[in-house]
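Support reply, case 0932

Customer input (verbatim):
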Amino acid sequence: MIGIKRRVSRAVVATAIATGMAGVGVAVAPAASAAVGGTVLHVAITNHGMYVKGPTTFPAGRVTMFIDAAGGDRGIEIARLHPGYSFADLRNDIKTAGANLEGPGGNTKAGLKALNHAIANITAFGGVYAHNGAVRHGSVVLPQAGNRYVLYDDSNLVPRRPVHLTVTAPGGAQTLPSTSATVIAREDRRWGGATTLPSHGSIKFANHANVSPHFVVLQHVKDGTTRQQVIDSFSSPNQPDFVLPGEQDSDIVSPGHAMALHLQLPAGRYALMCFFPDPETGMPHAFMGMVRMVTLT
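Our regenerated output:
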């Protein structure tokens, strides 16, 4: 999950859609940050550290995160740790799950145990990724007061650089910002919701599953590319010829939660995918068919 998400995506890139995952994002000023409502956090991640501009104590409600990526692709997540579960526990679970669920020779039982232990002990509200040199943003809703929220760097194989957040009584915006389309992760490891999304605008990503976290990957592909072609590419030793520059993704969202993700992508045909490892099998969800073809306009 979280760090595993990066691991799995990179493995898929290496074996299936390597050239397309480079993206075409360019850095842009977060022009509308004053108008988003609620709490705003600006996060910059470089090779030297993670820098957060904004309050670490704020009211429950809407939180908008901007991520400025320098020196590599970067990502952030906001989650709530359940009582008795620490950030070190999360790191250990993700490290164990990744080591055992990837490639031959791993102990699948141990990997699934660690993965499910992490799933059971955090609530993930969502996060945002940006390619090197880009600025991207999204919004989540933190629903209640508490001191077990954490914002962390999820750019690498294991979560790191935690910034602990104190959330006080609700105040300000208590809903996600208005969006023009919704995509839904379903319990059957399939997608629902809109099939036409804005290429430059915000979408709502809602996880309607009962158990598994999910996340969004949108990969630009040639017109006419089919769902089956995308699925077949995961097991092919050859680079597919349908991938185009342009890709954007969220971080994970736990069941029953949703986030808003602002897209900045070329218009065209896209594969909507989730590569979260299945809690029952460890297989990335896209490999199990969680792929849908959508149009960005």
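We compared this against your earlier run and they match. Two observations from our side: Residues 2-296 form one domain. Helices lie at 2-17, 87-101, 108-121, 227-233. Please reopen the case if you see a mismatch on your end.
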